[in-house]
User: Fold this.
Amino acid sequence: MRWFGSPAAVLQNPAGLRSRPGIGPHLVNVLGDSRQIATARQNARDELERLDRLAITLLTPDSPAFPSALRDIPDSPVLLYCRGALDWLEHPAVAIIGSRAASAYGCRIATALAADLVAAGMTIVSGAAYGIDAAAHRGALAGGGGTIAVLGCGVDVIYPRAHAELFGNIAATGLVLSEYPLGTRPEAFRFPTRNRIISGLARAVVVVEATEKSGSLITARLALDQGREVFAVPGRVDSPKSVGAHRLIQQGAHLVQNAADILEELSWSSLAPGKISSSPMPVLTEPEQRLLATLDVYPLDIDALAQASGLAVAEIHGLLLQLELKGLVRQIPGQQYERVCGN
Assistant:
């Protein structure tokens, strides 16, 4: 394109590539072989027909809908296969990423951040993986906003398989996209490569949980190279899942406590006063208030709750039930209880 102006011009004079750096003789011969070119054209026509049947849109950098945010990043994608509403590519976006083996805390924070950011008019970008990615997508969907899933495989391939329903929901109301052709399998090397698109689409990248060698740190570095803001959510100092996020904060990433921290740093003013808020707090009895206060930080089991609150174990069972019914507390594996985020 840089030398010839268009792909058609290359095909009309493939021999002209011989003097260009990085172009080997094999590629020149392929482009000059009429039979191989005819086969490639037929394959392309077949692919376009398949895209049409599956309601998938193919974007090139010349397409009006191709996201401008991706045009100038290093190694900008040549093609984008898109399933869903292209309008979301025009919205300001924040990427939320993190550990696949996320904790309940990390998933809760990712969900809440996504829901609050879409309430402020942001679109949430992530990679549709287990853990933080899935929590971010679900938070955006539950908040009634848009979300974009960037895949490391073809958009017609569901990976992980357990996310089939999530993929369907994103495609129905958001957007699923990939630079890889239809049918491309989810090989490990593709995921770090697609991360540049996740960060490239967003104004900022938020890392919720990450181990010391997490792929999320690769995305954070790409975001910095692309001139995006990087944020990190602090976690427990004794958890390996917090090491990566804490390292980013030590290196200058913005510390995130809530969505308002992100919006303020981005100077995003579309948020109406009071838009980000929790539901009104239900009326609580004094014992309920005391028990809820003991769950202010980390999940606890019944015995720990009794010790911290001074309430009898028999009474705590009934109080927990009432708090669960009021949406303030939930039980998690291990017969522990945690406070619902935002209350």
Remarks:
- The radius of gyration is 24 Å.
- The first helix runs from residue 7 to 12.
- The first strand starts at residue 57 and ends at 59.
- Residues 271-279 have pLDDT under 50 and may be disordered.
